[in-house]
Amino acid sequence: MTIQSLEGAMRTRNVGEIAATLPGATAVFRRFRLDFCCHGDLSLETAAARRGIDPAEVELALKALGSGDAPTPVASMSSAELIDHIETCYHDAHRHDLPELMALARKVEAVHREHPKVPNGLFSTLQEMQGELESHMRVEETALFPMMRVETSAELDRAIGALRHEHDDQARLLHRLESLTDDFTLPEGACRSWQALYVSTAQFVADVMEHIHLENNVLFPRFAATEQTIEG
Ligand SMILES: [Fe+2]
Ligand SMILES: [Fe+2]
Fold this sequence. Notes:
mainly alpha; 9 helices; about 70% helix; binds fe (ii) ion
């Protein structure tokens, strides 16, 4: 996408749609703390207003992305390719990352339990996240995604609605991780484990947001449209 093609209508476009079609946009939205995954249907202008940010600043950062070597936008992948991408880059990655994060959180909470900035409850929140994600991803992998690969099921709309609700629950847990860690702000003199815990947990939060975005804003709408067509 060229810089010229982004001009004018950018602030009236939905943040989810921008995130799906402009490579690098999700990192910009994260930097400005705009919710592009569970509230991807908001316009850039509205999303920025909710955070008290000038939308022109966000537009400027998004337009700067147009000048680099851009990877293929996820919106142009086929549904089967997108499902493979989600399973490999997010489902497998979360399963790999969470046990290490939980071990680090348990260690930091125990070793630094007297420290005023210790992130009390981080381990239990990560454990809750692991339970939520595991059952959610299993439903996607064993029920929803196989149906989407053949695109014939009338159950899709109902299943998608339920999974969107679970995404909202996951987003609440992500916000709890951010508030428990004061947005991953390390105290003076934090040990290496504490540093690793915050860097890795911040990356995990970013990965889950990207994961939810790909499903809510790119994959699921394709099948909601199919369902309406079937019923119509
Ligand atoms: Fe998923
Ligand atoms: Fe999901």
